[in-house]
Backbone:
């Protein structure tokens, strides 16, 4: 029997079996994917093809008191990008095409990316702030959001898994701040795969992953400018930041024209992921009008991300109200966003709507502001400032920096604000469009103080340097410490604290009349110097009047602004009420009830009641002046101890008790204890005798100095140098004696009646906002009722239905005698109407009887060194017999109060325009400087802009 030959396995058989196995594996894989894992992958595919398209709810509208639209919404076109696999593959070319269309049609790309690029392709950060600490915080947030902290942690601590300690976190932050903007830009170029612009070859692209960020940036620079790459980076970065909250559209440009939207619509087939959508945008029809009242919109700061997300905001796209009514009534004005969940195809186009949530508009806010009165006030303010800057001449006075001003007009019997001017203002439409370019941002948020300072010094011929004009803080950042520059986003009407000067004299008149230290008929002989009571000021110093007004009574004293009369009135009140620290509050107790500060011993709220942000200044009182001295003492102590000399009488080895990071904890504690001992003693002046506990305090000072010498090499060296230089031993007792002398000096200055005498004419620590000044004048001339100041009359829903209404509210009462009110109204009328009156040059020809008071208050004694002048302050009311409206005007560097009075007159002209036209048809308004006539107050030029809902009400 023959043996069968063993068949050989051929190559063909092997390949066949391999093919069968592969096919079986593929089939099994398909079965696994399409049957077993069908639900999982179907959900995943659906998720990746789903997009939620937000439908932004229109904000509520803002109306003036006549139903004119101060803030509304308009439908605009926006260009958006939807992220899909196909659109991402073509992202670079798509975005470049879109940007080309935008540029050709003069449209702006939406740009809130804080990493900017200058004309030399040099990266820098712009965080819309000049505050160094805020800048630092924002820079850290920017870098951490983009993962730079992870690399730093790994560099410092390796693959640490535990949570960082505070010290470690501080080390990470320090390292992060060392990373330059240019390095950040280069790193993001690599992280966002910009090297895909250089090649499409897969092997080449893999090699780029091993290259450094600098190397990739260098290659990209050969083909593209960094400025162009940054524009694409804006989109990539937005994708990265929004990826944490799901798949959402990215806005590339907003508020584009209809023509641009049409062009892009025609090109959509070549632009995967791009869509043209319609959405509401905030619009301010009157542009800059009442911008300080309205506020503006801005993107949500990343540092506040969590807070706003908890409130339901989309941090990546939503705008919020900043300042003014927009900020204060954000919760009222903000609508409830809606949107649609849709399915998109591979090109990011909508193929199916899965779910729709309707948006709901916000509620409307109706203001007390009258747009015509507001326009008249702003127009005249601008005219007066331009006159002061360019034309006004006076020997020894330079008003070229009169670039800022504020005015407030109130209804005397309700507290309603009729007009509120803060000049310069801004156009809130700039911010609503999201198209704030770097130049605009720089102007509003971070001006170049170096170049501005040099120009300012040269133009005014100042004998100082930029470092003196705009000194650098401890972080090396220049600051406007002398308040030289106009700040458009700062509301000077509600936040600008200024000394009132003589506009405070009506308040002193109230106190003097109510206290009975002067009366209706008494007269005084005016003097240049108030040297009647040398026991108060000594023989070598006395405040002066700068004028001699002859024989004056209280009415004439108000009219001509006689300082002597008010010095004497304050002195009499001090004596009448006990010549003690309580008597120092003789004027303050009346001023507090009129809204000029609050009693520090009460729980009264420091506010006029206004709905928007405000500062609240105070009048002089013993307790507040003492508190201020405690604050100043901390600097005084450091100064005279550091010099080793007090009052050129006490000499000792200089003691440096200034805070220093390099000090040991022991040295820091000793320094702090020395300062606390002295300031605590000052804080008890008036409550106990200055001698109480003084020996013990001196002993403690000596003990602390001994400890300091042992613990501080700096102090030890100071003592050795002093001993060697003066050939005598340093004495701790001498230091203690110097402290004692300083405390006795403070005791005298804090308790002196000189301060109430200065306060009587609006000097000293008296500082108020224009809003406070208008409110206080209203309170006096209406008989003593202080009303809550308010800007909002009512809230309505989007259909015009009433939601809430705000009625006049009384905050306090002065209970003034009728005779007191009448005397003050008489004196203030004389200031406006008689030849000797300080505002008569402007108001004498105005036919409706009114009252006024001018004030001039210095910024500081050496103000001219820094190009500053005195504040010009003016307060007024009309009509005289039954006041309806009160006005306060402040012009920074305005030199004289009467120079602001035309603004008040312009307000009256518009408020009484119908009365003037009918009862005084021959009255013609003229400018105070040119005597040329004008018509804008009697025939306001602004058109009425209303909407259908308001017109139907």
Residues:
């Amino acid at each position: 029997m023959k043996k069968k030959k063993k068949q050989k396995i051929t190559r063909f058989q092997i390949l066949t079996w391999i093919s069968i196995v592969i096919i079986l594996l593929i089939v099994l894989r398909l079965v696994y994917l399409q049957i077993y894992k069908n639900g999982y992958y179907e959900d995943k595919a659906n998720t990746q093809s789903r997009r939620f398209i937000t439908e932004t709810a229109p904000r509520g509208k803002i109306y003036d008191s006549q139903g004119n639209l101060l803030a509304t919404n308009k439908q605009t076109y926006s260009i958006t990008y939807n992220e899909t696999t196909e659109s991402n593959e073509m992202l670079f070319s798509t975005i470049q095409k879109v940007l080309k269309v935008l540029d050709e049609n003069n449209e702006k790309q939406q740009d809130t990316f804080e990493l900017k690029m200058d004309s030399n392709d040099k990266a820098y950060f712009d965080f819309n702030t000049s505050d160094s600490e805020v800048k630092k915080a924002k820079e850290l947030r920017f870098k951490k959001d983009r993962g730079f902290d992870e690399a730093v942690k790994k560099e410092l601590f390796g693959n640490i898994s535990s949570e960082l300690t505070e010290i470690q976190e501080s080390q990470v932050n320090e390292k992060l701040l060392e990373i330059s903007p240019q390095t950040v830009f280069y790193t993001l170029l690599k992280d966002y795969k910009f090297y895909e612009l250089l090649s499409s070859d897969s092997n080449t692209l893999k090699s780029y992953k091993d290259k450094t960020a600098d190397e990739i940036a260098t290659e990209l620079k050969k083909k593209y400018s960094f400025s162009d790459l940054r524009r694409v980076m804006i989109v990539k970065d937005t994708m990265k930041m929004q990826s944490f909250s799901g798949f959402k559209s990215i806005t590339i440009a907003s508020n584009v024209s209809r023509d641009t939207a049409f062009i892009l619509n025609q090109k959509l087939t070549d632009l995967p992921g791009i869509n043209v959508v319609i959405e509401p945008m905030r619009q301010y029809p009157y542009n800059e009008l009442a911008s300080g009242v309205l506020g503006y919109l801005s993107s949500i700061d990343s540092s506040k991300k969590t807070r706003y997300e908890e409130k339901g905001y989309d941090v990546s796209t939503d705008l919020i109200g900043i300042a003014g009514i927009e900020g204060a009534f954000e919760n009222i004005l903000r609508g409830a966003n809606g949107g649609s969940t849709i399915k998109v195809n591979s090109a990011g186009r909508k193929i199916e709507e899965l779910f729709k949530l309707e948006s709901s508009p916000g509620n409307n806010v109706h203001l007390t502001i009258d747009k015509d009165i507001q326009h008249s006030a702003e127009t005249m303010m601008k005219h007066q400032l331009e006159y002061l800057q360019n034309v006004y001449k006076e020997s020894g006075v330079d008003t070229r920096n009169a670039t800022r001003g504020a005015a407030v007009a109130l209804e005397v019997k309700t507290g309603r604000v009729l007009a509120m001017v803060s000049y310069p203002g801004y156009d809130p439409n700039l911010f609503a469009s999201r198209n704030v370019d770097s130049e605009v941002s720089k102007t509003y948020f971070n001006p170049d103080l170096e170049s501005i300072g040099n120009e300012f010094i040269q133009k005014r011929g100042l004998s100082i340097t930029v470092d003196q004009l705009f000194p650098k803080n401890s972080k090396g950042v220049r600051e406007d410490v002398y308040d030289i520059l106009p700040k458009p986003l700062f509301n000077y009407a509600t936040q600008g604290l200024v000394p009132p000067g003589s506009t405070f004299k009506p308040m002193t008149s109230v106190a003097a009349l109510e206290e009975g230290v002067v009366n209706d008929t008494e007269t005084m002989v005016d003097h240049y110097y108030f040297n009647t009571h040398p026991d108060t000021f000594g023989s070598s110093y006395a405040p002066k009047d700068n004028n001699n007004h002859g024989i004056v009574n209280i009415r004439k004293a108000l009219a001509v602004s006689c300082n002597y009369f008010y010095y004497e009135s304050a002195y009499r009140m001090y004596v009448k009420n006990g010549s003690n620290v309580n008597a120092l509050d003789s004027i303050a107790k009346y001023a507090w009830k009129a809204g000029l500060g609050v009693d520090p011993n009460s729980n009264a709220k420091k506010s006029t009641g206004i709905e928007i942000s405000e500062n609240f200044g105070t009048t002089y009182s013993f307790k507040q002046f003492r508190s201020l001295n405690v604050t100043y003492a901390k600097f005084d102590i450091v100064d005279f101890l550091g010099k080793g000399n007090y009052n050129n009488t006490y000499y000792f080895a200089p003691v440096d008790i200034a805070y220093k990071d390099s000090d040991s904890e022991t040295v820091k504690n000793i320094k702090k204890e020395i300062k606390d001992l002295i300031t605590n003693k000052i804080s008890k002046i008036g409550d106990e005798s200055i001698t109480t506990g003084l020996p013990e305090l001196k002993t403690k000072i000596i003990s602390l100095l001994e400890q300091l010498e042992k613990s501080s090499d700096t102090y030890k060296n100071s003592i050795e140098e002093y001993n060697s230089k003066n050939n005598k031993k340093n004495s701790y007792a001498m230091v203690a004696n110097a402290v004692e002398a300083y405390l006795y000096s403070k005791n005298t200055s804090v308790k002196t009646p000189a301060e109430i005498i200065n306060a009587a004419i609006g000097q000293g620590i008296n500082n108020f906002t224009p809003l406070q000044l208008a409110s206080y004048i209203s309170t006096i001339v209406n008989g003593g009722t202080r009303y809550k100041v308010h800007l909002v009359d009512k809230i309505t829903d989007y259909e015009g239905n009433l939601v809430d209404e705000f009625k006049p509210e009384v905050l306090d009462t002065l209970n003034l005698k009728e005779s007191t009110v009448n005397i003050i109204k008489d004196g203030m009328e004389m200031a406006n109407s008689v030849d000797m009156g300080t505002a008569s040059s402007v108001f004498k020809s105005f036919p409706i009887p009114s009252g006024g008071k001018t004030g001039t208050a210095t910024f500081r004694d050496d103000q001219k060194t820094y190009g500053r002048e005195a504040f010009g302050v003016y307060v007024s009311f009309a009509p005289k017999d039954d006041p309806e409206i009160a006005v306060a005007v402040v012009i920074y560097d305005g030199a004289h109060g009467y120079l602001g009075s035309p603004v008040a007159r312009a307000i009256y002209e518009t408020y009484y325009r119908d009365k003037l036209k009918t009862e005084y048809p021959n009255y013609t308004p003229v400018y105070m400087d040119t005597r040329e006539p004008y018509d804008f107050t009697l025939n306001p030029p602004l058109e009425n802009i209303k909407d259908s809902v308001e017109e139907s009400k």
User: Anything to note?
Assistant: Confidence is low (pLDDT under 50) at residues 44-48.
